[in-house]
Give the backbone structure.
Amino acid sequence: MLAGRPPAAVARGRTLDEQQVPPQVPVGVPAALLERRPDVLEAERLLAAANADVGAAKALFYPTITLTGSLGAVSGDLANFLKGDSIIWSAGASLFQPLFNHKRIRRNYEATQARFDQAMGGYQQSALNAYREVADALVSIQKLAQVRVEQEAGVVALRDASQLSRDRYENGLSTYLEVLIADQQLFQLELQLATTRGDQLRVIAQLYRALGGGWQPEPSAAPATPPAPPPD
């Protein structure tokens, strides 16, 4: 009634034994793959921007006159600066501004340097968090693989025990309660095995996320084909 169709056979998927084993993590996964993570890329760009701001703040310490002109000759600003006091004071608005505003420029430089240090700390934190997530996923994959091997061996043993209890019941050597107990134990362990396999698939997905897209490096761009030589 809920499905809106008459009763029919229930479509079943593959049995527990037919489920594929999670993919194996290859040896030697490079740490450079972490550079693809969005949080690492964001922290790196913020660090680059903060570094550029430090350079801009440092440039304010110098006057705004140019030292060379066209063809590498002495510029007009520098030539006027060397002529005399009257010309010096006429150019003083741009030449001596760093001197008159030294404290303000110094504090601005210190503030940009502090923001750079903050961006550096954020970048380091993003990198350490990426390493932590990868390490946690790898350890979980290793532990779950060990648990799965033990549970699979237990399922095989309980299936043999369940079949033995049925043979004993059919031969009149035990009651059906023994069969029910054996089937119940087998069913519980099969449920635990199914949970472990699901956890393995989930932790593989977590490793993909922690690596920023799996352990396969992105394919490099194909080299450009050189142009054909002109005809003779």
Observations:
- The helical segments are 38-59, 76-81, 85-90, 92-95, 97-100, 102-170, 176-210.
